[in-house]
Amino acid sequence: MAAKTKDYKSYLWNKSIIGYGIINGIINALIFLGINSGNPDGLFAQGKIIEEMALTGVLLGLILTWCVVPLTKMDLKKGVYRGEAGAYGPTEKLPVKAIPMSIVVGVVALVVVVVLSGLLTFVLPLPLTRTGMMVFKGCMCAVTGCVSGYCVIGRVTSAWEAEAK
């Protein structure tokens, strides 16, 4: 029995929140823990937090684009979900080609993570411990991954739909 075709919004939110958001956040938190395992007493002040998140955000946006584009196209070919005209919002304005799209999504991810991290450093008890930074980074990567996934899925789907017409 074939799986039921999902609607666009269901697919988008499932992939963005669960796959590119939460799972991505957990993976990035574990990577951070592994990289910083030799410095259990390390502390992270505001500048270091924002620097760490800026680098992570831009890389996450770039890399996630290169992963999400082929996966989304594959799901469209298999009929896993269907597009929904007019539901793509500002993502329709993103570049269609992979390299320019990855740059734009990388910049979007950078802006989101730096602004959000910067604002949160005003309310968090600083400096953050290694464990605190791991949790913070995991949460910020989840948000950034979700935003990046939303951008890429929307653009790929709208371009796919335009080609089909």
Q: How much of the polypeptide forms β-strand, as a percent range? A: under 5%
The side-by-side strand order for the widest beta sheet comes to 1-2
User: End-to-end distance, in Å?
Assistant: 29 Å
- DSSP summary, beta strand count: 2
The ordered string of helix (H) and strand (E) elements is HEHHEH
Helical content stands at over 70%
* Total domain count: 1
Helix/sheet category: mainly alpha
Describe the main β-sheet briefly. Answer: 2 strands, antiparallel
Mean pLDDT across every amino acid position: 93
| Rg measurement, Å | 17 Å
Count of DSSP-assigned helices: 4
Low-confidence stretches: none
Shape: elongated
Describe this entry's structure for a reader.
With 165 residues, the chain is mainly alpha-helical. It has one domain. Helices cover 72% and strands 2% of the residues. It contains four helices and two strands; from the N terminus they run αβααβα. It has a two-stranded antiparallel sheet with strand order 1-2. α1 runs antiparallel to α4, α2 runs parallel beside α4 and α3 runs antiparallel to α4. It is elongated and about 55 Å long.
Write the layout of secondary structure elements.
Blueprint: H1 8-35, E1 43-44, H2 46-78, H3 98-120, E2 128-129, H4 130-164
Antiparallel strand pairs: 1-2
Helix pairs in contact: 1-4, 2-3, 2-4, 3-4
